[in-house]
Amino acid sequence: MQEYGKSCTFAAVQRNEGLRESSSFLFNYRCYMIDKNVVKTLVEEWLQNNEYFLVDVIQTTDDRIVVEIDHADGVWIEDCADLSRFLQEKLGEELDDYELEVGSAGLGQPFKVAQQYVNHIGKTVEVLTKDGKKIQGVLSKVDGDQFTVSVKEKQHVEGKKRPVMVDVDKEFSMSDVKSTKYLLAFK
């Protein structure tokens, strides 16, 4: 079995009455910590046989490992359970000190990977720009790191007295916005 830990060495110094020198001792033990990249690699292995994609692996300070996956048609709880069992089998006892949570990225949560943008083409999204401006529109195109949102704006059109609502394409870079998320529509 592969080891994912690091050595931790502690030294304690104690002063005893009547002794000219301090006595000390060293205690060396193995601190096991699951590396986030190891979990990502294992998830990617499981994903090879599935149509899901990895959104994120989060390792919290309170010993939780959260694995977020997504799929164009949604995430099935049976598949989350299957991935959880797969990780428990591969990590074995290493996982005993952690709480493992496997689930979907969540509707209404900001997109984290490009595939989420692709899956939401044709749907209404909200873009939060770096300067804090919110823009709502239909995600119409994704090309690498770039995406286009079609928004309705009032504009003066030749031959019309008043401004009319027209579709205007706004282009963004995924790295140049604070967030983009799917807007749930209740009709």
Explain how this protein is built.
Helix 1 (about 35-45) packs across helix 2. The protein has three helices and ten strands. With about 190 residues, it is an alpha+beta fold. The strands form three sheets. The protein has a five-stranded antiparallel sheet. The protein has a three-stranded mixed sheet with strand order 3-4-5. It has a two-stranded antiparallel ribbon with strand order 1-2. Strand 3 and strand 4 form a beta hairpin. Residues about 1-15 and about 20-30 have low confidence and may be disordered. Helices cover about 20% and strands about 45% of the residues.
Instruction: Give the strand line-up of the largest sheet.
Output: 9-8-7-6-10
Percentage of helical residues?
10-25%
Q: What oligomeric state do the depicted chains represent?
A: single chain
Radius of gyration: 26 Å
Sheet with the most strands, sense and barrel status: 5 strands, antiparallel
Low-confidence stretches: 1-15, 22-31
How far is the N terminus from the C terminus?
A: 54 Å
Question: Brief description of this entry?
Answer:
With about 190 residues, this protein is of the alpha+beta class. It has three helices and ten strands; from the N terminus they run E-E-H-E-E-H-E-H-E-E-E-E-E.
List keywords for this structure.
disordered N terminus, 18% helix, elongated, 187 residues, 5-stranded antiparallel beta sheet, 3-stranded mixed beta sheet, 43% strand, alpha+beta
